[in-house]
Amino acid sequence: MGYPANFKVTTRKLSDNVVIASSAFTRADKFNFGARMALFNHDDSVIVWSALPYGKEVEKSLELLTGSDQKPNITHLIIPDREHTLAAKSFKEEYPNLKIIAMDSVKIPGVDIDYTFSEKDGNKLIDRKALEEEIGIKEPAILDNFEFVYLPFHGNQELVTYEKSSKIVFEADLLFNLGVPGTTSGKVTLEQYSPELGFKKGFNPHSGWSFPTRYMQPNSKVGSFLFNKLVNPKKSKNGLQAIYNWDFNTIVMCHGNLIDKDARATFKHVFSGAF
After folding, report:
1. Rounded CA separation 84/82 (Å)
2. Cβ neighbours of 46 (radius 10 Å)
3. What pLDDT was estimated at residue 180?
4. Among the four given CATH numbers 3.10.180.10, 3.60.15.10, 3.40.50.740, 3.40.50.150, the one describing domain 10-178+215-274
5. 17 with 146: CB under 8 angstroms?
6. Are 141 and 128 in contact (CB under 8 A)?
7. Beta strand spans in 64-132 (E)
8. What SS3 string covers 148-217?
9. CA end-to-end span of the chain
């Protein structure tokens, strides 16, 4: 599994203080899932969500976020689930003082986790008070701007993040939105396999071994079944309801295009068994 040898990202702003960077990524060298990182800038503290490998491409994204080519003050890295750890060490090596937020199941050789979520923190809203009193976070950049819901019964132990000023939900493997690519009406081009990243116009990432990935989307019965199988909606009911209770307009996921229309309705449709 991994990133392309010629690693590139396409970057764009979602708001004045939120930037996303998207790249190609292949699971098991067969399945084209794509990858995505988000960057937040709060009072000159930069927070990274779901790190991509640190290097020149990531530095371009940081420059777009801060408006400067000077090295930014990266203070925190949020690991969204136990499967999204590949690039964490590259950031820690570049910024040894940054603090890592993750679940207690995450183990990264040579890297300490500073703030951990455990099963006792699961399936409920983790707001400012809980972040400070239960998780032990003291830094205003996190306390003032983020809330979390931890889903410990998700197969990958998902830590869902909510950025309050932009009203955006960020998640790794809770939902995919890979869709069906193409150039004809009714089809979509996947940002993570777009011409900006060197792929031909109309490139189909679902060919060959990757054929099943076309079903990894909210409007697919197969996709919805798999998402629910992974999260266990009976055990995760309260957590899924807590996510739905956020006032969000957009869902940013690691794999596939953003959901920026009817995001809450889409979320409720996929996980209807929890409502």
Report:
1. 6
2. 22
3. 66
4. 3.60.15.10
5. no
6. no
7. 74-78, 99-103, 115-117, 125-126
8. EEEECCCCCCEEEEEECCCCEEEECCCCCECCCECCCCCCECCHHHCHHHCCCCCCCCCCHHHHHHHHCC
9. 36
- Domain spans of the chain? 10-178+215-274
Q: What is the pLDDT of residues 173-197, one digit of tens each?
A: 999 999 865 544 446 789 999 999 9
pLDDT in tens, 213-264: 999 999 899 999 999 999 999 999 999 999 999 999 999 999 999 999 999 9
Tokens read off for 174: 């809770």
Calpha distance 242→206 (Å, rounded): 33
In which residue ranges of the chain is pLDDT below 70?
1, 180-187
Chain Cα centroid distance, residue 217? 15
106 vs 81: CA distance, rounded Å: 8
Q: What is the pTM of this model?
A: 0.95
Write down the pLDDT at residue 78.
98
**Token representation of residue 97:** 């003082």
**Residue 177's beta-bridge partner residues?**
256
Count CA atoms within 13 Å of residue 182 on its CB side.
9
* DSSP 8-state code for residue 67: S
